[in-house]
Amino acid sequence: MAFESLIRQYDKQVMQLAFSLVNDTQDAQDIYQEVFVRVFRNLKRFQFRSQFSTWLYRVVVNYCINFNKKKQRAKFYSLNGENENGEASWSAKLKGLEISPEDSALNRELSAKIENAIAQLSPQQKTVFVLRHYQGLKLQEIAKILKCSEGTVKNYLFRATQKMQSLLKEYSKI
């Protein structure tokens, strides 16, 4: 089936983008499933004015923004306020080359600092930063996804980069 091949083609990108925007594995998996259900239901609405990936990423970004807003409201009304799950980062869960325990500890520390810095960006800055640096999209593609001008995307990216540099300045000397 054609839809199955679309899922296979964009499987990892959707999961990585969702995780990058919500920073929780379980939430990212739920979003991943919901996004593909929505895409399947609304596939007839796709008008081929842009690439399919642009449309799909827009669905993911919109869903994540709405999800984060709902989660923030729920966090505000939470009785116990415990929303930290202590999970390892997405990058830490990826299997890779063997590294020393010291390097592993440094990588975990740096990954946590980067994730914390990204979490401090505004929703627009975070979205642009993730789409550019984690998904490798061009500014023009990001502008289409966000339905804004390239200049606006450049501004968000510039401000996000400045804030990231400020938050991570202790690591810039490495």
Could you provide a short overview of the structure?
Helices cover 72% and strands 0% of the residues. The protein is mainly alpha-helical.
Tell me what the structure shows.
- This protein has helices at 2-22, 25-42, 52-77, 90-93, 101-119, 123-133, 139-146, 150-167.
- By secondary structure, the protein is mainly alpha-helical.
- It folds into 2 domains: 1-79, RNA polymerase sigma factor, region 2, helix turn helix motif (Rna Polymerase Sigma Factor, Chain: A, Orthogonal Bundle); 97-174, Arc Repressor Mutant, subunit A.
- The radius of gyration is 17 Å and the shape is globular.
Number of domains: 2
| The CATH fourth-level homologous superfamily of the largest domain | RNA polymerase sigma factor, region 2, helix turn helix motif
> Helix count?
8
Mean pLDDT, all residues: 80
> Biggest sheet, in brief?
none
Computed Rg = 17 Å
Please count the beta strands (DSSP E, at least 2 residues each).
Answer: 0
CATH topology annotation of the largest domain: Rna Polymerase Sigma Factor, Chain: A
Features:
mainly alpha; 174 residues; Arc Repressor Mutant, subunit A; globular; Rna Polymerase Sigma Factor, Chain: A
What is the element layout, followed by pairings?
Blueprint: H1 2-22, H2 25-42, H3 52-77, H4 90-93, H5 101-119, H6 123-133, H7 139-146, H8 150-167
